[in-house]
């Protein structure tokens, strides 16, 4: 089956209470704008690369490609502080009609790797030739 570009079909930020590369200030995701390539981002069931067009801001954007009828994910593990509130948001370019929807999910794990809970945004399913803001709360 041929590869087709798919906007981010499932974007997951898995927040762990273990040591991982960290960012500071209001931006906790390292390389959140994909300006430095795809590290430390990972992808499941798809290929993650960077593109220079279309971009929302800066010079690059992440693009996830894969075969149809798969559940694709882009993720990043990071270190957070206990008992704090976090919001996850991003800009999604969803213009491929084969991509059904996009959502953001924060997954929380213990320092030992056991799942605690997750928070997921509403699904974005409006295909547009422009970036759309998507966000999920803490």
Main beta-sheet annotation: 5 strands, mixed
Low-pLDDT regions? 1-24
General form: globular
* CA distance, first residue to last residue: 38 Å
Strand content: 35-45%
Strand order of the largest sheet: 3-6-2-8-9
Could you give the count of β-strands? 10
Please identify the structural class as seen in this structure.
mainly beta
Helix percentage: under 10%
Mean pLDDT figure: 78
Short description:
The protein is an all-beta fold and 138 residues long. It contains no helices and ten strands. The strands form three sheets. Strands 3-6-2-8-9 form a five-stranded mixed sheet, with no helix packed on it. It has a three-stranded antiparallel sheet with strand order 1-5-4, with no helix packed on it.
Structure description:
By secondary structure, the chain is mainly beta. It contains no helices and ten strands. The strands form three sheets. Strands 3-6-2-8-9 form a five-stranded mixed sheet, with no helix packed on it. Mean pLDDT is 78; it is low at 1-24.
Task: Give the topology.
Elements: E1 4-6, E2 11-16, E3 42-44, E4 47-51, E5 61-66, E6 73-79, E7 88-93, E8 104-109, E9 115-120, E10 131-136
List key phrases describing it.
138 residues, mainly beta, 5-stranded mixed beta sheet, 0% helix, disordered N terminus
């Amino acid at each position: 089956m041929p590869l087709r570009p798919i906007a981010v079909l499932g974007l997951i930020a898995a927040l762990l209470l273990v040591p991982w590369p960290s960012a500071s200030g209001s931006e906790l995701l390292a390389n959140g704008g994909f300006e430095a390539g795809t590290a430390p981002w990972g992808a499941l069931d798809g290929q993650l690369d960077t593109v220079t067009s279309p971009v929302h801001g800066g010079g690059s954007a992440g693009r996830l490609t894969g075969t149809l009828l798969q559940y694709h994910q882009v993720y990043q593990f990071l270190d957070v502080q206990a008992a704090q509130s976090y919001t996850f948001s991003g800009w999604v370019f969803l213009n491929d009609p084969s991509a059904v929807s996009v959502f953001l999910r924060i997954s929380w794990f213990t320092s030992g790797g056991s799942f605690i809970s997750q928070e997921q945004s509403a699904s974005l399913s409006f295909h547009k030739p422009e970036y759309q803001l998507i966000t999920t709360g803490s």
